[in-house]
Write a structure and sequence with these properties.
The protein has 18 helices and no strands. The chain is mostly helical. Keywords: Acyltransferase, Cell membrane, Membrane, Transferase, Transmembrane, Transmembrane helix.
Length: 368
């Protein structure tokens, strides 16, 4: 299909960015000894679709520009993608490592082994591991092209099988597998497996690739099955909330333990991510979007990458300020922090986008 600009995909980038910020602000809400469970449910449970959906969107963009039946030069492709992801990853990792060292008055993270470990696993800041996984997806692009070419022949069968296999793998990785080794390198490889093992997000990534290859057919199917899409979304949303409240009521988990249990890699979390992607595509692509929402989601979508990179800095500053001034983080303050982080990160992104920056600095800050 033609490589037209697809507004619904850009809207989804903005919506997912709001979800990512919500998850990180939710971590602040959980610091409260008696957190508002309903607010935590919104910030930490219902926003869980956002991280895996970004893998869906990344695959969509990759395969929209490089369809499996078209020409593909791996070296040229990798060069472009590394400039977009690897350079900002290294630049922002160095920034956050320096930032953390200054705050903690401890520069041990720059010792050779610690430095390599931090960059290898994406440990410079809690959000940046996403780019490590994305880089592995990029490096393995020839494999995904071969897989998708085969899956295109019987997509319902293959994607159903892949979803089921991914649910089983993620269940064991999240809840069952355990490993202890005296070798620190092996222990790190296991401990930080969620930071680099692409198998955790394989279904959602390949589904994004398939959607790009068959976008119009997918939208036609969605437009004919609106009731099914809406029902699926309602069912999985209810499932996420029931699981969250249920394990606190029956297993007596606290809110933090519940959040660590009901996440995007849990079985209900994977179903919820899939239903939310279909739901958003249905409403954003198959229906008219009001002009004010178009402007709002387009703005967030356009700036989503630099917002993602910078928002922990503003969150850190605001939470430090709250602690410094002895502000008790009630629900109202948590919501205010969320809005402030979103506005400040968006303003920063707008400024660096419109400033005539040197090319090297522009690539470091926002991959362009």
């Amino acid at each position: 299909m033609s490589k037209r600009f697809i507004h619904s995909i850009n809207y989804m980038r903005g919506i997912c960015m709001l979800g990512v910020i919500a998850i990180h602000v939710g971590s602040v809400a959980l610091l409260n000894p008696t957190p508002n469970l309903e607010l935590v449910a919104v910030l930490e449970i219902l926003s869980r679709f956002s991280v895996p959906t970004f893998f869906f969107l990344s695959a969509f963009g990759m395969f929209m520009s490089q369809p499996v039946e078209g020409p593909f030069v791996y070296k040229d492709y990798l060069k472009r993608r590394l400039r977009t992801v690897l350079v900002p990853y290294v630049a922002w990792s160095l920034f956050y490592m320096t930032y953390s060292s200054i705050l903690s008055h401890n520069a041990s993270i720059f010792q050779p082994l610690a430095f390599i470990r931090t960059l290898w696993y994406g440990l410079a800041m809690y959000h940046i591991y996403f780019l490590v996984i994305l880089l592995w997806f990029y490096f393995l692009m020839p494999l995904w092209r071969v897989m998708l070419r085969g899956m295109n022949h019987h997509p319902w069968f293959w994607f159903t099988l892949l979803f089921a296999g991914n649910v089983v793998f993620n269940f064991y990785s999240s809840y069952v597998w355990d490993f202890h080794s005296a070798n620190p390198f092996l222990q790190d490889a296991f401990t930080y497996r969620l930071n680099y093992v692409v198998l955790h997000y394989l279904f959602i990534f390949l589904f994004g690739a398939f959607t790009a290859e068959h976008f119009q057919a997918t939208c036609n199917w969605l437009s004919r099955h609106g009731l099914l899409v809406n029902s699926f979304q309602a069912l999985t949303t209810a499932g996420m909330l029931m699981a969250y409240y249920g394990i606190m009521a029956t297993l007596h988990y606290d809110a933090l333990s519940a959040v660590f249990t009901i996440h995007q890699l849990s079985p209900i979390g994977m179903a919820y991510t899939l239903s939310t992607i279909l739901y958003l595509l249905y409403w954003l692509e198959c229906h008219r979007v009001p002009p004010f929402l178009h402007r709002f989601f387009s703005l967030l979508g356009d700036y989503s990458y630099p917002i993602y990179l910078v928002h922990p800095l503003f969150l850190s500053f605001l939470t430090w300020s709250a602690a410094h001034f002895h502000i008790y983080l009630r629900s109202l303050y948590i919501i205010a922090i969320y809005l402030a982080v979103t506005c400040l990160a968006t303003a920063f992104s707008a400024i660096i986008t419109w400033l005539p920056l040197p090319k090297w600095l522009s690539i470091c800050l926002k991959g362009k």
